[in-house]
Amino acid sequence: xxxxxxxxxxxxxxxxxxxxxxxxxxxxxxxxxxxxxxxxxxxxxxxxxxxxxxxxxxxxxxxxxxxxxxxxxxxxxxxxxxxxxxxxxxxxxxxxxxxxxxxxxxxxxxxxxxxxxxxxxxxxxxxxxxxxxxxxxxxxxxxxxxxxxxxxxxxxxxxxxxxxxxxxxxxxxxxxxxxxxxxxxxxxxxxxxxxxxxxxxxxxxxxxxxxxxxxxxxxxxxxxxxxxxxxxxxxxxxxxxxx
Length: 243
Hints:
It is an enzyme of class 6 (ligase). It comes from Tenacibaculum pelagium. Residues 1-182 form the BPL/LPL catalytic domain. This protein is 26% helix and 36% strand. It is α+β, with helices and mostly antiparallel strands. It has two domains: 2-192, 2-Layer Sandwich (BirA Bifunctional Protein, domain 2), CATH 3.30.930; 198-242, SH3 type barrels (Roll), CATH 2.30.30.100. The protein has a seven-stranded mixed beta sheet, with helices on both faces. The chain has a five-stranded antiparallel beta sheet with strand order 11-10-9-8-12, with no helix packed on it. Helix 2 (71-87) runs antiparallel to helix 4 (159-178) and helix 2 (71-87) packs across helix 5. The termini are far apart. The relative contact order is 0.14.
């Protein structure tokens, strides 16, 4: 395991992707930055946090035999590694919001962005970006649903210790992926999925409201919602939100 620590960078994911293109990067290389000037979230969203107070890092992971059709299990494993580490801190009402945000009491604590390198029908390697709000106490009004570990438990945490604990768990989850223990990863993930089997109000990307309940994740990684008429509809990223 190799850890590259930087004071400031535009994005740890971008840095690690460029590094892998221009040189040979060993498996489980980590890039950690005190500050990101252009941190990335899902679907080109920005990840904005105060420098030096939070964990922003990316992990390079190689795969020998991971088919693109099984990429949801990579997302499951990564989000579970973060979830289980934070769960040790006794944070209240911790859950994974599909696909891989970590919430505590309905507020966002951590986000994950996985960018894959593909060859044929296989994922050859991935850059796994993880951002966790740790010691930040004040957030922009543009982020009303953001929170941090310190805000919740009123205690400061050592970023290096927390990083190490996440990496230990991440390595364990990636080993399950290499062993193709997909059913176990899915069972673990669904057991902590936010609002699973809870009747909720949703909004689709046409701003139409509807009632339903999350029942699972489809083979191709889409969110499965059972509607009031008991039909099941599948939604991709940014196609549905809680109303």
